[in-house]
Specification:
With 76 residues, this protein is mainly α. The chain folds into 2 domains: 1-30; 33-76. 62% of the residues lie in helices and 11% in strands. It contains 2 helices and 2 strands; from the N terminus they run αββα. It has helices at 3-27, 54-75; strands at 41-44, 49-52. A two-stranded antiparallel sheet has the order 1-2. A hairpin with a 4-residue loop joins strand 1 and strand 2. 0% of the residues are buried.
C-alpha cells in the first residue's frame, strides 16, 4: 500500500478513538459512583484538596484489560 492509504487509515482510527473518548467524557458525570468509590483518597485541608481515585483507576484498568483482550480474541 502507498503512504497515503496508511496515513488515511491511521487518521480514521485516531478519529474514532477521539470520538469514543468524547462520549465517555460526556457521559461520565451521569454515572454517580464513578470517582466516588470506597478507597478513593480525598484529603481536604483549609486551603487545599488532594483527590486520587485509586480504586476507580484500578477498576477501569481491569475493565479495559478484559475488553481489549476480548476484542483481541474475537479478531482471531
Amino acid at each position: 500500500m502507498d503512504a497515503r492509504t496508511e496515513i488515511a487509515k491511521f487518521l480514521m482510527v485516531v478519529g474514532i478513538v477521539i470520538f469514543f473518548v468524547g462520549i465517555i467524557v460526556f457521559l461520565a458525570p451521569r454515572i454517580p459512583w464513578l470517582g466516588h468509590l470506597p478507597g478513593d483518597i480525598d484529603v481536604r485541608g483549609k486551603n487545599f484538596r488532594i483527590y486520587f481515585p485509586i480504586i476507580t483507576c484500578i477498576l477501569l484498568s481491569i475493565l479495559l484489560t478484559i475488553l481489549l483482550n476480548l476484542i483481541k480474541f474475537l479478531r482471531r
